[in-house]
Specification:
The complex is a heterodimer of chains A (about 300) and B (about 375). By secondary structure, chain A is of the alpha/beta class. Chain A has helices at about 25-35, 45-50, 70-85, 100-105, 105-115, 165-170, 185-195, 210, 220-230, 255-260, 270-300; strands at about 40-45, 65, 90-100, 120-125, 175-180, 200-205, 235-240, 240-245. In chain A, about 40% of the residues lie in helices and about 15% in strands. In chain A, helix 3 (about 70-85) runs parallel beside helix 5 (about 105-115). The chains are: A alpha/beta (about 300), B alpha/beta (about 375).
Amino acid sequence: MRHYQIPAVELLGPGHLACPGCGAAVGMRLALKALGKKTILVIPACCWSIVPGAFPHSAIDVPIYNTAFETGGAAAAGIVAALDILGDEETTVVTWAGDGGTFDIGIQSLSGAAERNDNFIYICNDNEAYMNTGIQRSSATPYLAWTTTTPAGNPKERPKKNMLEIMADHRIPYVASVTIAYPEDMIRKIRKAKSIYGTKFIHLLSPCPPGWRIPSEKVVHVSRLAVRARVFPLLEIEDGERYTVNVHPDAIPVREYLKAQGRFSHLTEEQIDEIQSNVDREWRRLLKRTQFSSAVFDVARR
Amino acid sequence: MKKVITGNEAVAYGVALSRVQMIAAYPITPQTTIVEELSQMCADGRLKARFIKVESEHSAMASVLASCTAGARSFTATSSHGLALMHEMLHWAAGARLPVVMVNVNRAMGPPWNIWNDQTDSLSQRDTGWIQLYCENNQEVVDTIPQAYRIAETVRLPVMVVLDAFVLSHTAEATEIPEAERIDEFLPPFHGRFTLTGRQHQSFNPIATPDYYMEFRHKMQEAMDQAKEVVRDADERYERLVGRGYGMIEKYNWDGADTVLVTSGAVTGTSRFVTDELCREGPPVGLLKMKMFRPFPVEQIREVLGGVPKVAVLDRGLSFGHSGFFAGEIRSALCREKERPEIFGFVTGLGGRDVTPGMIREMIRYTREKDRPEGDIIWVGLKR
């Protein structure tokens, strides 16, 4: 992978209220470096409603528009429309929402904005549960994971919703997945999103030390394991059909990813094997789509 | 210029005259033709505004609040279940002190499904911090929208302009469209006091601890109190420029009246006709039109109803387990008066049931004949 220098600009200041080792804090810091000062952040209810600090403080050096849980897409659309009529062509509008505000309660307004192709970047900070209220399952929670509403004796029974594919199927110009373990990749993708007109969806996997039951210093490590174990592939989907896998994982066993986290400590060997076969199946499916898309676009280029 | 237009077309003219810059709306009967007319106006350039065709009323209000925070004069319209779906965001509008204007076409709430007129939808939003203005006819609709923006932008609270389903929304009346220059004089361009494109380091609607929250609420209440003066001022200025004014309340056929009928919305027109007739026949019956419901014009109510022996309140909405909305509010406003009128609370016209001149006569007859009402609610037009 080509490396990019990480910008020196710091728009996330000290004094924020994130937990030690919070993946979302590192994610926000990197995202703001990529976005720059001419950014308006739209934050529906999520950890980041609290993290910048309570009134009258803010640890973020761009304007923030806090909005209701389910309105990440609609609020961004409103700001974009206002900037348009007021003649502001420089400012980038970015929604930063959690997985609850994206996969669940917010999917309607996000889908509405994407269908209209409103011009903004939507970053889903996916920590795979409702972490702001204390680790309750969301539809982003992985199969068999522990949360306080899916306790070990009755873990989550359904697979994670495939939000990337759902967004790609809106035929928006740009959809990508990122993690803080690959910061150059993340910054490149956010900058690319910024350069494209329309709705852009960035899926950030964001390990949560208390929620995932991992030590604070292991957040980057676990983020990397997710990519290496093919649990969270780093990819781009353009116009809903051009697939690019950015990092080709060395396919470590998914067991290594699961064993690094307390939220999977109840799993039996059989369950780990089942998760492995699910991950393998999803990976084959992704490769098929990638090969299909490159075949189609190679033909188109000829 | 005089045109024969429906209430919903009057809304669109009022919005265009107010030079609204952003509209987000979702169609719902009987508001739909507002969305259609405004879409057309944006499409053919009569209105230079962005129109977001949102996927729900909740998103409509969320978009409008965001665009207003970014500095654009913003508008939406809804009705009934659409308004109920917005409920959460109505609190956000008022709490964020955003001067947005919304039109609500009064329609009954289901179930059972009902698309016809009553006032339960808007009146049950009374505690969200919105100023509420009810219109009697299409002329009042077109005149009230620019006033609503002036009021909203002065006190920094959202304003709901309300008109009756079908009776106004789909009924055409001869309506004077004010000259755009007059309205420009009345309503200067919108400049948000704080906007998202202002300073870098600004957080809108952040979490406020118990150390601060109550003060935000206190300021909202102060703004509501201030609104009464601002509404009066806006109305007087409008009247000077355009020639029509409405007031927060309006006294009609008042001289020597022993009984006063209180109404709001389009039924006021029918009631004017009935009280005119009754005044010709015998002792006069006064009519009190309530244009403003929030802030409730408590002082004005005390002043005009203080010495009246009997007051009949015609409610087209009901706070279940209590009484008609207006009757309850008026009782509360007068409770400390020494000379308290007897309040007769009539509930009628729910779900579009016609309120006829005969029914209004019956309410007044009942009020005159009885010393006191049989209960806090007297149902009129109910099939038993």
